[in-house]
Amino acid sequence: MIVWGGTNGTALSDGASYRPSTNTWTLLPTSGAPSARYSHSAVWSGTEMIVYGGFNGTSYLADGARYHPALNTWTALPASGAPSARYLHTAVWSGTEMIIWGGYSGTAYLNTGARYSPAANTWTAVSTTSAPAVRSDHTAVWTGTQMIVFGGYNGTSVVNTGGRYNPSTNSWSAISTTNVPAARSNHTATWTGAEMVVWGGFGGTTNLSDGAHYNPAADTWTATVTAGAPVARSYQTAVWTGNEVLVWGGYNAAYLGLGGRYNTLTGLWTTTSATGSPPVRAAHSAIWTGTEMIVFGGYNGGYLNDTIVYSIGKNLYLYLKP
């Protein structure tokens, strides 16, 4: 797991890689690294972590860099053709390109973006024709052929609209509004291999504990089961385990330290174990290793730099203090 940037009250420009098999951290080099920032995006290309955009506490940023773990080096992204400065945007990896979309520029909410090809070291603008309306704090998933964008905040209200972007044709398609879940921002969205599962988030006046499956092949929405679902929350994380959506942490009048596992086939929720549950938090990061969820950092009234490993098979936590 590679962690970089963020904030502890001040924007950061450092990071480290964590190897769960040996339970060890290795600092990333600072030479050639991007400048300090938070609310940026990062994707994994298969060989490199690519960082873009963000906010440094004073300025919104329109630059980034690629980190190559095998070489332990940073390479700056080209400025020519790069998207305009932004934060709270989304980024997905298509298999050949990083696709940046939406966000906030400091003066305006955006519905623009661009695709970055590491092989060609070039940017290509994302079409704005039929693109979803402006927003930040939305979600985006990659289906294998398309990026699906949903929800977010447009500067006035939360929304429950979205769109599908096909990079091979540089075109957008609308997504159905029939049975679409309620408007929300700071929610989660995961891709199961066949569906996008949206859950939780902030509904404009209250946090939510519902969601829906979106099937792009049929262009249909189906509500998630609410019985047994975790309590309402926003700023949580969610990962796809291969069988379940695993939701953890977040905020709802208080910081949360429990979550749930949602089986998309059976509609059953399973509460994550409270035994050994680590400190509550929101706005953390989480990844799926293939067998475990690893959580790092977050905020619970103070900034955190601890690590949590959650095993589904054992339904227990390994809490690793900093």
Q: What do you see in this structure?
A:
This protein is mainly β and 322 residues long. The protein has a domain at 1-141: Neuraminidase, CATH 2.120.10. Helices cover 0% and strands 38% of the residues. It is built from no helices and 27 strands. It has strands at residues 2-4, 15-19, 24-27, 41-44, 49-52, 64-68, 73-76, 90-93, 98-101, 113-117, 122-125, 139-142, 147-150, 162-166, 171-174, 188-191, 196-199, 211-215, 220-223, 237-240, 244-248, 259-263, 269-271, 285-288, 292-299, 303-311, 316-320. A four-stranded antiparallel β-sheet has the order 4-5-6-7, with no helix packed on it. A hairpin with a 4-residue loop joins strand 16 (188-191) and strand 17 (196-199). It starts with a strand and ends with a strand.
